Automatic annotation (TrEMBL), chain A:
Protein's recorded name: Acyl-homoserine-lactone synthase
Recorded GO MF terms: N-acyl homoserine lactone synthase activity
Single GO BP term: quorum sensing
UniProt keyword list: Autoinducer synthesis, Quorum sensing, S-adenosyl-L-methionine, Transferase
Species annotation: Hansschlegelia quercus
Automatic annotation (TrEMBL), chain B:
Keywords attached to this entry: DNA-binding, Transcription, Transcription regulation
Protein name in UniProt: LuxR family transcriptional regulator
Classification via InterPro entries: Sig_transdc_resp-reg_C-effctor (IPR016032), TF_LuxR_autoind-bd_dom (IPR005143), TF_LuxR_autoind-bd_dom_sf (IPR036693), Tscrpt_reg_LuxR_C (IPR000792), WH-like_DNA-bd_sf (IPR036388)
SMART domains in the record: HTH_LUXR (SM00421)
Gene3D superfamilies, per database record: Transcription factor LuxR-like, autoinducer-binding domain, Winged helix-like DNA-binding domain superfamily/Winged helix DNA-binding domain
The keyword DNA-binding appears for this protein: yes
């Protein structure tokens, strides 16, 4: 299951977010070596973790097994505010395009060095489901070029926004991926399960109830 | 024209191709200015695979006459330093940068020298990773001066990845359309035939007469464009309908 939590509700899930910020620090600072976001308290929180961020949290056996954060392109985001030089096309800024950042699977839930694994695939199903339910059909991701190949295999339509570039120890390429109901079917086929994975929490659940009722 | 626009346009062209052959043709046009005139693309076979299965991992090849046959016949894929390096590498690299392994160095040098005799003197390999973690690559080679400037490595990498993605999409569409044409019974009989069962044995398993089994197999063979039962099994394998 993927819980979808709005940034404005983070205060209601204190202990959960203790676990999330620690996971982010472990994966991005300690494993990937992103020193500029290292924090002495081991909680990786940045300027984009505001009320408008949307957090996706995957669970296995009641524990956090994976995470990703969605940022609206109509608001400050990594590509526009941190890496604008990576982008050769105009940076999308409409509210129906979101940026996917901090995609992470907890080390104990990974399957092999290179496989996306069941948690990794569920996170992907999660953002597609969230997007289709929220009027979003494009996300921007700064990922390693090989992810383009995987994205195509899962039924996404990717489009490069720039050329691959070295950032720290990684090579990344900013890419816009478009998806539809068909993408979701393909991902579910790959996962071997067809039930919805996302569960909207707090404010987002309330907004959704209002929208569905009207 | 900027390097990005050139790359973007090449990716557009690749995405518009409607057969894997055209995809690889477009891809070769991208790398030819750097002296790369040949390619081989596919996933990594396991050393436990039978030779026929090894061939199934090969998605496309534009190699000098006779080289691919020699390569497959000698099972060079398991010793080839370029292929071995892909296991530890996710960025594109030059063939000359692929390290030799002490224990099999003589055989590895032989592969490079034979490749060179066939007209492949140097090349560039682009690794890919499938969703399930399976490794693959597209490896470009050339017989003359191979000159790939550093900036072009990233561009070739990106275009090659889009091309491989497109080729795989097109392959799976073909598989789907062939599979869709076969009935469940035809698929069942084919699967058992490929396990080496006789018509009578297949009939017993499925609770139908051996005459009906024969009809199903014949109809499957027609749909697959095969001439007989063995050919139908081979075609079904090739199309990825049975594994």
């Amino acid at each position: 299951m993927i819980k979808v939590i709005a940034g404005c509700d983070v205060g209601h899930f204190d202990s959960l977010f203790d676990e999330i910020f620690a996971l982010r620090h472990k994966v991005f600072v300690e494993e990937l070596g992103w020193e500029e976001i290292r924090r002495p308290d081991g909680r990786e929180i940045d300027q984009f973790d505001d009320d408008y961020a949307v957090h996706h949290v995957a669970f296995r056996d009641g524990r956090v097994s994976g995470y990703q954060r969605m940022l609206s392109m109509a608001r400050p985001n990594l590509l526009r505010n941190v890496y604008p030089e990576l982008c050769e096309l105009e940076i999308p800024s409409s509210p129906d395009v979101w940026e996917l950042t901090r995609y992470a699977v907890a080390p104990e839930y990974r399957e092999g060095k290179r496989s996306v694994g069941s948690v990794g695939t569920e996170l992907i199903a999660g953002f597609v489901e969230w997007g289709l339910a929220s009027g979003v059909n494009k996300v921007i991701i700064e990922f390693e070029p090989m992810w383009v190949f995987r994205a195509m295999g899962l039924g996404f339509l990717p489009r490069p926004l720039g050329l691959p570039a070295e950032v720290g120890q990684q090579t990344i390429v900013p890419t816009e991926v478009t998806f539809s109901e068909r993408t979701l079917l393909k991902i579910r086929e790959t996962m071997g399960r067809h039930d919805p994975v996302v569960c909207f929490m707090g404010t987002l659940a309330e907004q959704r109830r209002v929208r569905l009722a009207s | 024209m900027s390097a990005f626009i050139k790359t973007f346009d090449a990716i557009e062209r690749v995405n518009q191709c409607d057969t894997p052959e055209r995809v690889f043709h477009e891809l070769l046009k991208v790398v030819e200015p750097y002296g790369l005139t040949n390619l081989m693309a596919g996933t990594m076979p396991s050393p436990h695979d039978k030779r026929a299965e090894t061939k199934r991992h090969l998605w496309a090849e534009r190699q000098p006459e006779g080289w691919m046959q020699r390569y497959l016949q000698q099972s060079y894929v398991f010793t080839d330093p370029v292929i071995r390096r892909i296991h530890g590498e996710l960025s594109p690299f030059r063939w000359s940068e692929a390290p030799l392994s002490a224990a099999i160095e003589t055989r590895q040098k032989l592969i490079f020298s034979e490749a060179s005799e066939f007209g492949l003197k140097d090349g560039l390999a682009v690794p890919i990773v499938l969703v399930d973690g399976t490794l693959g690559s597209v490896s470009f080679g050339g017989g003359g001066l191979v000159d790939v400037p550093t900036h072009a490595m990233g561009e070739i990498n990106l275009i090659a990845i889009y091309a491989m993605g497109r080729a795989v999409q097109l392959r799976s569409e073909t598989e789907h359309s062939v599979r869709a044409k076969l009935t469940t019974r035809e698929l069942d009989t084919l699967r058992w035939a490929c396990e080496g069962l006789t018509m009578i044995e297949i009939g017993e398993r499925l609770g139908i007469s051996n005459r009906t089994v024969e009809l199903h197999l014949k109809s499957a063979a027609t749909k697959l464009g095969a001439r007989n039962r063995a050919h139908a099994v081979a075609e079904a394998f090739r199309a990825g309908i049975i594994h």
